[in-house]
Amino acid sequence: MFGVIRRRVASGSPSPLFLGQSVQKLRSGLSVTARASSIVEKQIAFHSGECGNVRSLCHISRGSWIKSKPMREVFRQEATMQTWRRPFSSDNGDSVDVVVPPLAESISDGTLAKFLKRPGDRVNIDEPIAQIETDKVTIDVSSPESGVIFKLLVNEGDTVEPGNKIAIISRSADATTHVAPSETTPEKAAPQPTQKISEEKKAPKAETSPVTEKPKAPPAPQSSHSEPQLPPKERERRVPMTRLRKRVATRLKDSQNTFAMLTTFNEVDMTNLMKLRADYKDAFVEKHGVKLGLMSGFIKAAVNALQYQPIVNAVIDGDDIIYRDYIDISVAVGTSKGLVVPVIRNADTMNFAEIEKQINTYAKKATNGTLSIDEMAGGTLTISNGGVYGSLLSTPIINPPQSAILGMHSIVSRPMVVGGNVVPRPMMYVALTYDHRIIDGREAVFFLRRIKDIVEDPRRLLLDI
After folding, report:
1. Domain count of the fold of the chain
2. InterPro entries under this entry (predicted)?
3. CATH number of the CATH domain containing 309
């Protein structure tokens, strides 16, 4: 039996010639009495700069001594081959195991929300077969190979970790052939009661005993009029919360328990901003390929207000206050699965078109559930627009680790006094919820007033006044 020992020695020396000479000298002083059955393979890898691995292989006879230790080594050259495998799968011949891919750096597990394919379905390579729901995003699990779903190894709703097997794919099986039932399929139904009834009919009548009439149960006592009449439990449904909903609930409750939240309000006349949008919306789309909305105007106003009141952009960390010299605006987006808050990075360096393009991209990703964790991490101020749902007024909750959140609401035409005359104006209520531990009422009111001034007269952005 041949004993094969692989040794990998990493060396920083840039010259493999020195070692070759040393081995050559060693060979010259050794007797050649090795047997062919004693083969030891030694692989020496050199890592120098950006060069690849250099393997120096030679022959040493039995009985050699290196560093006062007997060695029986024979070096021979061997071409090494590397096998490339697709990630997140394990190959077992005809079958391929589908495993959970790495979720994220801060996420250790997830919930298998649903299978997109069932046993017997044919799948192509990289085709999604399942969805895993984490605390923040939903991740698709793609098929590592083309074939037929042979078996599902977990149930929908189970908690899975990276590396767990969730399904088996057969390469050679046909979609019409029989496949093993998955663990999610229910057991066979119990035999129908009609069979039992027919057996009872065949039994002789003599064996039947007379049925004694059971005493009737006493009627249930009538409830008094003072007791509340609750609806029956059969009319209620208990559904487990999704991981995203549980994460949102936890963060919002932590925010309420941590921050000393206070909300201040103001109203904004939207006449000039809406007129600016109506005058240039066609030219804006023609040049930039995206529609001009109202959110970009409020983001630009919020950026300017944060530059005037940097304390709103700061946050408390223990006994310190962290002033952030960058402005990342989080935009709250409501989806069917829950609330997500993607972040517009470095909003102070972006123009209207760049902001609108970024919002449009995030809106599509939020609808499709393809937002990444990196796209929702961080942020220094959140803007929530409840007006798209018809909200007239609200008190938003701070999104930690931020110190304030701006709430937009619906635009309603109301009578306003302008130049001594009562005229109808499109008005919007705005709300700022802030952490009173770090932001005083004076700074909060000035911040909201600055937003009001810019939205009512966008020319202030051009003149910086």
Report:
1. 3
2. 2-oxoA_DH_lipoyl-BS, 2-oxoacid_dehydrogenase, 2-oxoacid_DH_actylTfrase, Biotin_lipoyl, CAT-like_dom_sf, Single_hybrid_motif, SucB
3. 3.30.559.10
